[in-house]
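Predict structure. Chain length: 104.
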Amino acid sequence: MMRVGGRTALVLVFILLGAGWSTAWAADPPCDTYPVLLQTKCEAIWKSLYQEDGPVIAQFGLDQQKRREEGKINAEQHLGENMAFIKQSTEKRLARLKERMAKE
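Prediction complete.
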């Protein structure tokens, strides 16, 4: 298995996550389920939710990388925890979107 330096790995994680989110957004945006008149509002809310969560996501990535460098988790654990975090944070963001859209 190829070893990647700490900073390089962190950059790679952010690139992969960003690419994944961009692809997910393009393939199945959560706002497609709303009527056309509400989709613009939904997209604005979705983007603001993503911006609100950005610092938490970044901090999680930094904390994970630190734990990895300290030997507290291995590559498999790192990936598994990242995937679980992404799933959980996306589910929470979707729930918040639904709540905010219900007010519209």
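Summary: Helices lie at 6-27, 36-69, 75-102.
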